TrEMBL record:
Signal peptide, first to last residue: none
Pfam families named among the record's database cross-references: NTP_transf_3
Gene coding for it: ispD
Broad EC category: transferase
Protein name listed in UniProt: 2-C-methyl-D-erythritol 4-phosphate cytidylyltransferase
Keyword tRNA processing: no
Organism name: Aquimixticola soesokkakensis
Length: 221
């Protein structure tokens, strides 16, 4: 599932007439960079809310189903729950649509490390040295077994596998995935694995040039 409903307010004028996933980076809209990270996944779905029309056409042309959040936007956790009737039971990849990447595709890396016996979610993380354009600091600490707690040492890249057990028990219609992660941390079942390349946060306008430099550097190696 691609999260593509957000207002993209930090992008300022760039999201006046288009949603953030349609902003081009290195000749491709951000959503295509995200789709490339999930190329091996057969069934793809995106949630839409802000300026959905052109994005929906774009996604359908790439074989990605869409679900509109209407009338209210639901946040990431609420958006995932809203999509479960289409996604079905069991673990799902989720992916934010405001980053670019070098290295092995996110889906490949996550599948290699996924262990449903001990994990309720597995997050793809970056060490601060692997991040570009990211000013927010880290989100988690990872122990030697890969288990996560809250902290500042590891940055969430926006890609994960999550088994949304317990999502139906949350009362609010709109809620962040962070709420589910907190419950998983309490159960000792939130895990991470480190990305093997670079990752650039393109949630804000300065990220666009930084992302293009990062990708150009990769091509010139
Ligand atoms: N209600 C929301 C909020 C966010 N997202 C998605 O979740 C990811 C992370 O969103 P974030 O950057 O936190 O919010 P945006 O609305 O995208 O941007 P901004 O913070 O600048 O408003 C993005 O892929 C965004 O489209 C979403 O699907 N639904
Ligand atoms: C969890 C998240 O996707 C991390 O990038 C994001 O912070 C959640 O956004 P929400 O708007 O709080 O649902």
């Amino acid at each position: 599932m691609f999260f593509a409903a957000g207002f993209g307010t930090r992008m300022g004028a760039l999201t006046n007439s288009q949603p953030k996933p349609m902003i081009p980076v290195a000749g491709q809209p951000l959503i295509d960079h995200a789709i490339a990270q999930m190329a091996q996944v057969d069934r793809k779905l995106a949630n839409l809310h802000y300026r959905p029309d052109a994005l929906e056409t774009h996604l359908h042309a790439r074989g990605v189903q869409t679900i509109r959040e209407f009338p209210d936007i639901l946040e990431t956790g609420g958006g995932l729950r809203n999509a479960l009737p289409i996604l079905g039971d069991g673990p799902v990849f989720t992916m934010n649509t405001d980053a670019v990447w070098t290295g092995t595709a996110a889906a490949t890396q996550l599948l290699r490390a996924w262990d449903p016996e001990k994990m309720d979610a597995l997050l793809l993380l970056a060490r601060p040295s692997q991040t570009r354009g990211h000013t927010g600091g880290g989100d988690f600490e990872m122990d030697t077994s890969g288990r996560l707690t809250r902290g500042r040492g590891a940055v969430y890249t926006g890609a994960q596998i999550i088994n949304p057990i317990g999502i139906d028990q949350i009362a609010e219609p709109a809620f962040s995935l962070n709420l589910l992660w907190e419950k998983m941390i309490a159960r000792g079942r939130l895990f991470g694995t480190y990305h093997d390349g670079l990752w650039c946060d393109v949630g804000h306008p300065k990220g666009l040039a930084i992302a293009e430099d990062m990708l150009a550097g990769q091509r010139h190696v």
